[in-house]
Every structure is written in C-alpha cells, then in structure tokens.
Design brief:
The protein has one domain (about 30-355): Glycosidases (TIM Barrel, Alpha-Beta Barrel), CATH 3.20.20. It is about 45% helix and about 10% strand. It has twelve helices and eight strands. An eight-stranded parallel β-barrel has the order 1-2-3-4-5-6-7-8, surrounded by five helices. The relative contact order is 0.15. It binds zinc ion. The site of zinc ion has 7 residues, from helix 7.
C-alpha cells in the first residue's frame, strides 16, 4: 500500500512537472495575441492590463493603424494589420472595373452554401463557420478570392507594400481566411488549369490525391510568397497567421508556412465545444512540430471566444479557464484569441486571461 502511495505521488509529480496538470497561477503560457479592433484609447490600455502582447486588426487605414501603433508603443503592445482572402471589397476598391477572381465550388457545395445561409435556427444546426465540420457538407459562407489567380497575388503585394510604407511602426502583417471556401480546393477555371498542369508533372498520383496535394502545395506557396514579399519590403517585419478556414485533408499544416507566428486552432468557438483531450492534443502538436520545416516558426494555439451571441451558444469564464488549462497542458507557450473584444468586454473572462497572461514581466 505504501509503495502504491509512493508510486501515485511520483506519477502525479511527473504530471505536474511535464505540464499536464498546470498549477493555478503558474503555467507555460507567456505570450498572447488578440484578433479584434476598436478605439485605440479604449482597447489598448485594457488589453495591456489583461496580458495581451499583440493586437491584430483587419484595417488597412493608415491613420487608424498609426494611431493604434502610437497607443501600442505606450503600452508595449505590437500591432499587426491583417489581410484576408475575404477582402473582396478591398480588391474592388484597388482595382475598380476589374472583376474579383472568386473561388468556385461544385453543385453539392453550392447547395450546402444555400442550406447553411437559409438555416436561421439557434446554433445553425452545429454549423462550424470554417472550423472542423461536425455534420454534413459544410462550406464557408463568405466568398473568397482565388489564390491561384495572379490578380489576387498582385492585389496582396500591393496591399502589403502600401500598408508597411504608410504605417512603418507596425510590428507586422497577419494573414487570415487564407484557405478554400469548400475546405479542400478551388474549382474555378484558372485553378482547374493549374491542377491539370500539376497532374502532368505527377502522373503517378491519383486524381483525388493530386487535387489534395496541389491544393495544399499552392496554398502553402501563396502564404510563403507573400511572407517573403513582406520581408522584402521591411526586413524585420513579423508575419502572424491563423490557419483558417480548415483544410480538411490536413488540418494542422501550419508548420509548413514560413511565417513567424503560426496560429492553429486548439479550441474552436462553437458547440459541440472541443473535448479537453482534443484541445491538449492539438496544442501539443502545434507546439511540438512548430519548427519541423522552418526555423523561424513559432506555433501558436488559437482559442475562439465569444461571450455573447444571438445566433449560437457561447463560452463562459469557467469554460475558458478549462480550455486555457488544456492548452497549457499541451505545452503551448503562445496563444491567439479571437475575439479579443469579447474577452475585454466580459470582466470574468478577462480576469481568466489575466490570471494566465498578466503580470509575468512581459510588459
Ligand atoms: Zn480558383
């Protein structure tokens, strides 16, 4: 019996030292980035108090970005401007008169899009909005620019050049919605043409596997080309991403991206909320494999947090605490949260983040 107690003690001690059971107020989470926005004088001081190190906004307005940078400097917070394949309006504004090259889907996927759009039920029948689907065919409801079209690459390069020149104090650029509307591939003419050319070079690969491999390879290349371009404009620029929408053939492909901070989903927003086991496992993979392809890569565990919604169930402070514990248990050191604004507006949730990230001397 005494031996059993000693064994139990030894096992529990090892679990604590391996980070499987994080002690309250003591954990390996040291860096927090938030996706959001708002008035700099309102969000920056509160974000800094909560323990945020960086804020990522979707704006490309130099006046706003420079004001945010100024406030960020006062509170030692880095600011990122995020690009998105869903910025169809920004594309139209930059290239008036030219038709945005949108991704295309097949009949089944288009029917799914229609079904999802028409579903007004609370929780939208467990639709996951670009996260790993739990039910029948899911697609993203937002149209996305096709990453195989040269106009899309040209558009993003122009955006990166203009933003980094007009707001030189930015810590970096971020990439969001860099993926496929149907979570697998694009079926437009240009993508079909490039896929056919790719297949000619790889005749040994089956049609299905070729579509997956081509789609992943070109998605990775698109990210890496733009990251390299940003570094050519500003050598010390940092690139942050959130791998989204999910790429179903390989959800955790983020370490293939030659970026600085690669956020991959560790705890998604919607019900059914992910199990603690899944959150810890994803966090472990995101962190353990972060430098498998590129030395600069830092894996970041992304947690989705909504505290209020008329459309779907949301997380409370206790749920958020358990998820952050599960992320810490996976060994992660960096976390991204979306939406930062939801974290800041719910005092109980904000305090949970502050417990994990506040007051660790990183300010
Ligand atoms: Zn396409």
């Amino acid at each position: 019996m005494r031996n059993f107690a000693l064994l139990l003690f030894a096992v529990l001690s090892s679990l604590v030292s391996w980070g499987c059971l994080p002690e309250a107020g003591k954990n390996n989470l040291v860096h927090l980035a938030g996706w959001g926005g708002g008035k700099p004088e309102e969000i920056v001081p509160l974000a800094a108090d909560t323990g945020f190190d960086e804020i990522i906004v979707w704006s490309n307005d130099p006046a706003y970005l420079n004001m945010l940078v100024e406030w960020g400097n006062k509170f030692n917070l880095g600011i990122y401007s995020s690009l998105s394949l869903s910025h169809v309006d920004r594309f139209k504004k930059r290239f008036p008169g030219s038709e945005p090259p949108l991704q295309a889907m097949n009949e089944k996927e288009t029917a799914a899009l229609q079904r999802i759009k028409e579903d007004k039920s609370f929780g939208k029948s467990s639709y996951q909005y670009g996260g790993e689907p739990v039910g029948e065919t899911e697609v993203l409801t937002s149209p996305l620019l096709c990453l195989h079209c040269p106009e899309t690459l040209a558009y993003f390069k122009a955006e990166i050049g203009d933003i980094l020149t007009a707001a030189p104090g930015l810590t970096g650029m971020a990439f969001d919605y860099f993926g496929y509307q149907n979570y697998r591939c694009c079926r437009c003419e240009q993508s079909a043409k490039l896929l056919a050319e790719w297949r000619e070079k790889h005749p040994e690969i089956t049609a299905e596997k070729a579509e997956e491999a081509f789609s992943l390879e070109t998605l990775v290349e698109f990210n890496n080309q733009l990251a390299a371009y940003a570094r050519s404009v500003k050598p010390d620029v940092k690139i942050a991403t959130h791998v989204y929408p999910v790429f179903l053939p390989e959800p955790l492909y983020g370490n293939r991206l030659d970026v600085d901070y690669c956020g991959q989903t560790a705890a998604w927003f919607f019900e059914p909320f992910w199990s603690m086991g899944k959150i810890t496992e994803y966090s472990r993979i995101i962190t353990r494999d972060e430098k498998k392809y590129f030395p600069r890569g830092e894996g970041v565990a992304m947690i989705g947090v909504y505290v209020e919604s008329k459309a779907h169930p949301v997380k409370n402070a206790e749920r958020v605490r358990l998820e952050l514990q599960a992320i810490a248990a996976g060994g992660a050191d960096r976390v991204q949260v979306c939406s930062m604004n939801h974290v800041l507006k719910d005092e109980a949730v904000r305090q949970v983040f502050k417990e994990f990230f506040g007051g660790k001397g990183n300010k």
